[in-house]
Amino acid sequence: MFMEEIFSKNDWLMIWNYKDTFILGFLNTLETAIIGIILSLVIGIIIGLMGTSSNKVFRTINRIYVEVIQNTPLLLQLCVFYYVLAFSGYKVSILFAGIISLGVYHGAYMAEVFRAGISSIPKGQFEAATSQGFNYVQRMYYIILPQSIKIILPPMVNQVVNLIKNTSCLYIIGGSDLISLTYNFVTGSTTGGAYAPAYIVCGILFFIICFPLSTLATVWESRLKKKDVMA
């Protein structure tokens, strides 16, 4: 049955006729992912810097946030954020709920990426920068972050790719992302069927987004390492 669907001319023709559905899902997923990535980076940088702070309160905030978010499922966080607000009388859009949930969830992982990268730099670098009169922002911008970028980059891109794939979780609250619209297509009264071609197309579209990012990260990391060797 599966192989028959893959080679079914009629099924592929149906996919082509409803290509706008897949294009819409692709664009919605891309929009959700881009805004979610920006949010996760902002949260990651702020919470990550808190984790490297000498202030105990900031470090405590970092640990509470990271441990709570990382040790609870994204689906649970998404449902809590969307349904609890809805039942409380605060109706939010599915897109907004998805963006916030993805940003908050992956922000915790981004925070650990930034914290680990910054912590990997020898303390002597911080002390030398301080002795030269650099303030905190200048130390980070000119001294610490340029050195830690090659450590931060690979896991950061992995989180970006994971965030893009996790947009599929919006399906649980009836989103209009790629997975949701693909499911609606294969179960629709007028478009039902064509399971194999529909999910193959869905997978290809995710691959189109994620593979270039992974490749770019690998190339960028290699170039940074070559610069270190040449230096």
Helix content range? over 70%
Alpha carbon gap, first and last residue: 59 Å
Order of secondary-structure elements? HHHHHHHHHH
Total domain modules? 1
Instruction: Report the CATH C-level class.
Output: Mainly Alpha
Radius of gyration: 22 Å
How many E strands? 0
In the CATH scheme, what's the topology name? Answer: MetI-like fold
Low-confidence stretches are none
- The global form is flat
Q: Identify the CATH homologous superfamily.
A: MetI-like
Strand proportion: under 5%
- Structural class computed from helices and strand pairing: mainly alpha
Question: Mean of residue pLDDT?
Answer: 86
Count every helix, treating DSSP H or I runs of 4 or more residues as helices: 10
For the largest beta-sheet, the strand count, sense and barrel status come to: none
